[in-house]
Design goal:
two-stranded antiparallel ribbon; 5 strands; alpha+beta; Alpha-Beta Plaits; 3 helices
Length: 114
């Protein structure tokens, strides 16, 4: 059994000027009232959009799974990228993009919020 305090493999480390890090976040977020709206092709669109966001903001999505009512992501980023800022970018931009490209979702969510 692996010890959680063991140092990561050298291949898992990222080297910067004057620092070394391996920083990963497991992020989960749900739709409002856990409504099952992330299906029927919308899940594939969201995956593609989140991957483009990762490229734009220079972080890595190591793993991602989209369920009908929630999203799981394992994100690898630099320590300079604050977690609240990353969450705002991921959740806010994705919700805005989703409502613009799939307006039928608003009718399934009371108040039109994810």
């Amino acid at each position: 059994m692996a010890n959680i305090f063991d140092l990561p493999n050298k291949n898992d480390l990222t080297y910067g000027r004057g620092y070394v890090y391996s920083l990963q976040y497991h992020i989960v977020w749900c739709t409002k009232y856990r409504r099952k709206v992330l299906m029927d092709g919308i899940d594939n669109d969201i995956k593609a959009y989140l991957k483009s966001m990762a490229e734009e903001y220079k972080f890595t999505i190591t793993a991602m799974e989209i369920m009908p009512d929630h999203v799981h992501m394992l994100v690898d980023c630099s320590p300079q990228f604050e977690l609240p800022r990353m969450l705002k970018i991921l959740k806010g931009n994705t919700a805005r993009w989703m409502f613009m490209s799939h307006p039928e979702i608003k009718s399934k969510l009371w108040g039109g919020h994810l």
